[in-house]
Amino acid sequence: MASKIFYTVVAVVGIGGASGAAWWYQNDPQAAQTLMAKFKGGAPAPAAAPSGPRAVGVEVAKVEVMTLRDDAQAVGSLRSRQNVMMRPEIAGRIMALGFTDGARVNAGQTLVQLDDTLQRAEVQQSLAQVSIAKANFVRNQELVAQNFVAKRVLDESAASLQVAEAQLSLSCARLDRMRIVAPFSGVVGIRNVNLGDYVKDGADLINLEDIGSLYVDFRLPERYQGKLTLLQSVELELDAFPNRIFRAKVEAIDPLIDANGRSIGVRALLPNTGGEPKPLPAGARPVGAPAAATANAAPKPAAKPAGAPAKPPTAAAPTSLSALPAQEVAPRLPSLCPPNAGLRPPVPAQAATALGPLRPGMFARATAVFAVKPQAMAVPEEAIVPQGGRQFVIQVLPVGSVPAAGPLPPNTEWVSKRTEVKLGIRRPGRVEVLEGLNPGDTVVVAGQQRLQKDGTALRLVEMGRGPAGAPGGAPGGAPGGAPGGAPGGAGAPAGVPNPAGAAAPTAPTAPTAPTVPATPAMGAPGAAPAAAAPASR
């Protein structure tokens, strides 16, 4: 029992002694270090000099003037300017085809001729009835003039003539429906039928596409509605033609906004051309001309050796009924119907356009260009400091331009100032400044969290380098090493003499403007002569 009490007392005294020693060490660390040095038999450590105000290390960048575009990106698809699927209005058997697959046809050209034997017979019957009705009408006119018949007989003969003429028009209309013609000039696709096939009314025969120019349809968020106007420029990139840019013009804007996606439909007109080369990034070399660049160019014929026999000309692809093979040409029967007797109006002729490389259905990345600003002020996105719904940047100004926030360290050259700015266009890594800055101003891009007051002393630092203006030699360099102020210079390793002898140090000069790295994220080697090189590892 006595031993337990003894152990308890010893533990309590030990804990109290340790607590007191810790309290004493925290309140008087200098005395504690002196006591520890005496206990170990060494000399007491020298007292640390009181620390004064220090400059805040920050990274900076300059306000640049560059060309910025106000645009919006979207995806879309190419569509034919005009397209139609040719279908018969009356069932019948195909007697002739007036095209070849994938060929170009002209407006009004016969594409499919159905068997019209019955329809022609009906027209001939109607013509005979009209002839009889006309003869009766003329005869009754003479009889009425001689008072041999009543005038009622003349009226009945006139009505019969009108009925016969109407029957003739109906027969001619039925005959005309057996011939399917192209409503516009374009390119036909691959047919789904052959000669002798019996097709019903409404069956798909052949598609006709006008691809002299194409439409590109895409959708943009409704917030761009106020910026969209007709004839605006649209740049397109197609996966089928990399490294090419195609330019279109806005032709129509949908007045109805989609309630589900809150987007507005836009249609642009795109000429079917080979486009233009896409600008290469700085320093890039073109690998080779893409295939799209020569899509419209005619191949150059190979040089013909001397004395070679002339090659017979190749027959052109048939594009009309007269050029098709004989087994696919419908017999040209004389027209039985008089002019404007139930026939469809003739299709106006259209000028033929060259076929380009673009095709309907291609996937396109569209960029609608709203405005181009050639003299826009831009800063890195990292320089923007949002606060309370407003946007700020921290400017780097010489000492004396802003009242100091407190005592400044010696040799201080730059201080901070918080400035409110108005932002404009945003681009990856850059943002436009509309108000608040001037071209050439210097702003802080890293270290803003430690700048809470205007007038704080700044120390300009580059990524991967020491503070601007600091000695750059690595520690341990032997006498005679290169001065550290040279870009990338470092002292010679210990024990290695300098063959050229000791170099006299050059007195540094005070910079007149803050040193700014080439990019806000990474410092360019040798960007500032006074910048220090990193110590060798």
Describe, in plain words, how this protein is organized in 3D.
Helix 3 (117-145) runs antiparallel to helix 4 (151-176). The strands form two sheets. A six-stranded antiparallel β-barrel has the order 2-9-12-11-10-14. Helices cover 17% and strands 30% of the residues. The longest helix has 29 residues, at 117-145. The protein contains four helices and 20 strands.
Keyword list:
6-stranded antiparallel beta barrel, 4-stranded antiparallel β-sheet, disordered C terminus, alpha+beta, 537 residues, elongated
**Radius of gyration based on Cα positions:** 46 Å
User: Averaged pLDDT, please?
Assistant: 75
What is the tally of helical segments? 4
User: How much β-strand is present in the residues?
Assistant: 25-35%
How would you write the strand order of the largest sheet? 2-9-12-11-10-14
Low-confidence stretches at least 5 residues in length (pLDDT < 50)? Answer: 287-334, 466-511, 518-537
Main sheet summary: 6 strands, antiparallel, barrel
Gap from first CA to last CA: 64 Å
Order of helices and strands: HHEEEEEHHEEEEEEEEEEEEEEE
Query: Which bin fits the share of residues in helices?
Result: 10-25%
The count of β-strands is 20
